[in-house]
Amino acid sequence: GYVAVGLVLRRVARWAWVPPVVLTAVVLGLAAWIVRPYYVDETVNRELVSGPVRDQSAETARPPTGAAEEAAAVRIAAGPLRGIDHDATGTASLVRTSEGTHVVRLERFDIEGVPDPQVYVVRGEDARDPGGVHLGRLPGNQGDVLDIAVPEVVPGSESWTVLVWCRSFSVPVANATLAPI
Fold this sequence. Notes:
The protein has helices at residues 2-12, 18-35, 56-61, 67-70, and strands at 53-55, 73-80, 82-83, 88-96, 102-111, 117-123, 133-137, 142-150, 160-166, 171-180. The protein is of the alpha+beta class.
């Protein structure tokens, strides 16, 4: 397309400076359209777990007093979100819902924008390679609370890492090693 526009402009333009100026504008416009979204922050807040979330240590310290407390969501592991050659802050945690499913919760997070960010829950500490349970695309790079459903059972007794991975460049962006609470 670029070559075709250049040839047409050379034939129809009266002044020699017009084709380079028009082609430069086309290139800059395309670059802005393609690259700009990676540098614009997108805020997302989504709570799949409603109501209070208790820490697992608080659950074992006192007996439940009623059925409503037994059915509350429990944070079973958490850790700070750290950037890997990118900027990232916040907290990641693994929450067991009252239905027995699991949710990865990102809280007060801000992750540097990258193309096609993917989220994984990977077995082990400080994981930097994708694998484990793929949770899908990260819908935004900052927010107060973002819950992401975990499609498989993740045992709470093992060490896990929440990993944000850039699929376009095959590089790790951020991770959080989850420690039992």
